[in-house]
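In this section we walk through a basic example: taking a raw amino acid sequence and producing a predicted 3D structure, encoded as discrete structure tokens. The instruction is simple. Fold the sequence below.
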Amino acid sequence: MTDFNSLLLILAIVIPLAAAVLLLFTQKSCDCMAKLIAGIGFLAPTAIALWLWGNFGDAAHNAAGYAYLSQFDLGMKETLGISLYLGLNGISAPLFLLSGIVGLAAGWHAINSKAERLPQYLLLLLVMQGGLMGVFASVDIFFFYFFHELALIPTFIMIGIWGGAGRRSAAMEMTIYLTLGAMLSLLGLIYIYKATDWTGFDLIALREYVAANDISDVIQHNIFGLLLFGFGILVSLFPFHSWAPRGYAAAPTANAMLHAGVLKKFGLYGLVQIAVPLMPVGALEWNPLLIWLALGNILFIGLVTIAQRDLKLMVGYSSVMHMGYIFLGIATLSVAGVGGAVILMFAHGLSVALMFLLSTAVYQRTGTYDMRDMGGLGMKTPILAGFFVAATMASVGLPGFANFWGEFTIFMALWQSHAWAVAPAVIGIIISAIYGLRASAAIFMGPQSEAFKAASAGKTITDITRAERIPAIILILGLVLVGFWPRSISNSIDNQLMDDAVYQPRVLSTAHTPAAPATTAAGHEHEEPAS
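The resulting token sequence is shown next.
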């Protein structure tokens, strides 16, 4: 069974990429053939991710907490120390599942869209999907980075060809920022390779090496700084955030769902899985600055979000704003805080993908993203209104949705480590409620604007269709399931982090106040070691 599950892990990456190659050779066939091939390419990784997640607790885990391990020598092992090494641990497994769920929802929407040159559109989306599955399945750091770049390339192409207004400038800005972030993070990863005098990029072996050998504080400071700003730019850390809202506003919907929902988690995952465990002293030294930048995401970008009148831009800025909470969770350097950050990564991925999906549904019925030209849509589209309000409440962090557990746990951990930052962070919830509820009211409540009346004259406005409902239901079911059963993902996260001495709060007690036993959403507690 272990070998079978390891094979499934590989197939989750290979199948969407194989489907993309098949579309390349059959793109002159009818669209129905392209839809069938793409459907298999998106459905298979989701089914595999669900199966592997369901069996993760009972799977055989090695000392580092990884299951389903498999390694392939591609001829670079002896010379460069690089091999295709795949596996899942308690942190990567939920994000691997997230990739499958959001990928299926985005793929379903793309298949049922009226995009021009549909086979090419689906081909690029499948390449993106295969890369995303590879990012969170990679144990080798080289392939972790490689799969990210593989998933990133289609983003630029899709925005440039199928994007909306301002797509060229948005694609150019994204290219500049993301290339800079990718180069800085690559320098940091290469620096790790040189600093550890190691012969490979195997993360498990690297962590064992670092645990047994001291790395100077200066080197740790430099490496973590490169990774923080490299990964941070890729995640739109304040003030390197301006590319994200404009890029998402110009991107086609399926692409925005995958990038904002999943690919954006690459940098956060890299900090949790690589940067902090390998360079804990560097993490501690950069921690104060990270907290201030995270608060910049929450407060400054939150206020900018309130000022938006374009619906898609508002969703883009809100996505950037909520990255601040995840950075705060990482900055606590505790089991509870980092565990809450990973839960919020999962929840944010679902909720922001849902918001982009529903924003497009609103646009298709109103002909505009300008909320000032809307109003009264709820009378004609009550189901769409219900989905939109639910997605807004999830984004705000209402109990009953997965986002609540991530934010709540982060606040609890932040209170233990940096109590002064809790008040400004909580203000962000108020900001989220203001722009979210105002958007819902402007679109679905009240009288129709004159512009909307004129634009919709003679047209029949219908409620959300079945093709639009299915991806929305997929995403909202994930939010509600984890909202009512947080242990479904928090148990694996807890177990992984509790086994990692770096995330024991009192280990870094030189810069942290004494903390109570950390508790994540799973309800587990662990005793703190004596100082």
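Looking at the output, two observations stand out. Residues 396 and 432 are 6 Å apart (CA to CA). The longest strand covers residues 67-72. In the next section we compare this with other chains.
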